[in-house]
Amino acid sequence: MFLYGMSMLASGLERASGGRLERTLEKMTDTVIKGVALGALVTAAIQSSSATTVIVVGLVNAQVLKLRNAIGVIMGANIGTTITAHILRLSDLQTDNFFLMLLKPKSLAPLAMIVGILFFMSAKRDRQKNIGIILLGFGVLFTGMFAMEGAVAPLSNEPWFTSLFATFRNPVIGILVGTFVTAAIQSSAASIGILQALTSTGLITYSMAFPIIMGQNIGTCITPILASIGASKNAKRTAAVHVSFNVLGTIIFVIGCYTFQHFVGFSFWDAPIDKGGIANFHTIFNVTVTLLFIPLVGLLEKIARTLVRDKPGDRDQEITAITLDERLLVSPGLAVEHAREAVVQMANIARQNYLSAIGLLFQYDPKVVERINENEDVVDKLEDRVETYLLRLGERELSDSENRSISELLHTCGEFERVADHAENICECADRMFETKTKFSKKATEEMQTICEAVKEILDLAVDAFQNVDRRAAASIAPLEEVVDEMEQLLKDKHIDRLRRGKCTVDAAFPYVEALSNIERIADLCSNVGESVLTYDSRMEEIDRHEYKRLHGDQHDSGYQAQYAAFTAKYYGRLKKKAVSE
Fold this sequence. Notes:
Elements: H1 2-17, H2 20-27, H3 32-46, H4 49-61, H5 67-80, H6 83-88, H7 98-103, H8 105-122, H9 126-152, H10 159-166, H11 171-185, H12 188-198, H13 206-219, H14 222-227, H15 233-263, H16 275-293, H17 297-307, H18 314-319, H19 332-362, H20 366-394, H21 400-435, H22 442-468, H23 471-475, H24 477-500, H25 506-536, H26 545-551, H27 558-581
Helix pairs in contact: 1-9, 2-3, 3-5, 4-5, 4-15, 5-15, 5-16, 5-17, 8-9, 9-12, 11-13, 12-13, 12-16, 13-15, 13-16, 15-16, 15-17, 19-20, 19-21, 19-22, 20-21, 21-25, 22-24, 22-25, 22-27, 24-25, 24-27
């Protein structure tokens, strides 16, 4: 029950943060001090140093975070995880004050569970549901703590239990026990909580607790070690930094503590320790070790590079590493953002392919064709990776806004992939023209350039709307797409008229019409992207009905009509003028 409560509390806090804290790790870790502060803040917020270090390993593997910058975050994570022990120490709160008694976990835990259940069952928005999960997790956590205390209290009278803890006076055994127990449950906060529960027996002394706590800090390194399997060299080095930081810190503290105890002595050394004492030492240990190693970040990096050496070809392999790292799935908000970045990359490649392809219609270049084909392969691979990644993410417990984001990304990913497909089709039209030595007539070239320019603008709007979640850019797509439809029909009619009058060759007719159809389809796909941005915007609940309808592109809306008129004058009007001049 204790472990489940801790998991529920961490899950609620993680979902409430929506990945915002984790995303700051990408942008604000340029100095060690900032890294330490952010690592502590993120870990305190999501109540899991293991989750933080796994995220850091994933960011390093994705080449978003540099190894040196990751070191500070790891140090901070060790500090942030101590907050759990300070929360659990509240169960020892002794007071006669009525209001303070209400804050005691024995009084507060049942109330928190009741309120949490009410919030979770009745809330319609993610924010209130997450608050309910946090309160429920808080209540279950302390209920589990009280259950553990009640279960272990009778053991204080058992001779075998007393003799067992007597062996923990040996610091090596204490460190090993702390290491293996924490490695088994993969949570230093949880193992610290179990140790705090055991203090109710009165058998745990300061001399026993100190080495166990230090061992618990080493044991928590198992999670990033497992996460780094199959990752890049720098990701493995990140895990190595975590291990070396905690091992070296433990060695320094053991030498310091036991030297002082031998020559001077701690007055409390053999006294029973309580929950507050465990929380205090856990914090003192991690803060002190962090302060010692902040100036020695370069040394930790050098140790990591010595433990995980480069091999020939490793550098090239890291350059092509996949940015969609599955280690980031532990933070759905962060995983969604990285998937979005991959789709943005797809969108930009697809846009570049379109620009290159329409250029081939007027000036053929075999090297450009080769580049378009290479880019098309990249887009196809990115689509496959993004879809697989998002489907894996969808298997996790997600908030409604995260589910909406996944739906948007899956939809938009397919649209941009098809944009690249149509660009490749345009490239094939250019290939046929080159093979048959066919060229468009002067009028056909001018008209084709006009519609290509219009679709370039609509494609720019679509990429911008998706990348920046710009609803106004998205709303501008629909009126422009309507103008493009009218332009396509006009150009087909004019082309047929030129064929009838003998102004255009039959050989040029097929590639012209096919290229025109593919260009118009790209405009349709951009319209789908704009609609997707408007439909799946997680902030849509803040927009009233009239605003939503207007942004969706209501053809009877004055804003829509004004944009339609402006685009008609800008593009369709130019074609009509050319028709009159003919």
